[in-house]
Amino acid sequence: MGDGAETLSMMQAAAMQRARLARDVGADAAVAHADAVVGSWSERAAALLREYGQTSAEVGVTFTAEDVRGFAEDKGLPAAPDSRSWGAVIMRARNAGLIKHAGYETSKSPTRHHGITSAWRWVK
What we know:
Layout: H1 2-37, H2 41-59, H3 65-74, H4 85-95, E1 99-106, E2 116-122
Antiparallel strand pairs: 1-2
């Protein structure tokens, strides 16, 4: 019985690893496309994420990629051809230690149909 559970656990870990890789590849492709269509889109998006973060860090609130996207578009950043481009911007900020995952919230976007989305908190 232990061998079967161990094998299942290894299979689940491998499936999770493949899913993370697919997520990262997809986000990188989406942001590369955004940069090709709207020059330096990801750099501008990252700068606006930092600007948004200064405000959210002061009050200690959590935020979602949707919140940042709305803020950035209000500041004049053109919408990315694919909203998944924000995934790469968020992951880069997380990997740089600027933000940390703070749980989940219900999406405010009508196209997400009240689905679950990651919440983030500013660290630095």
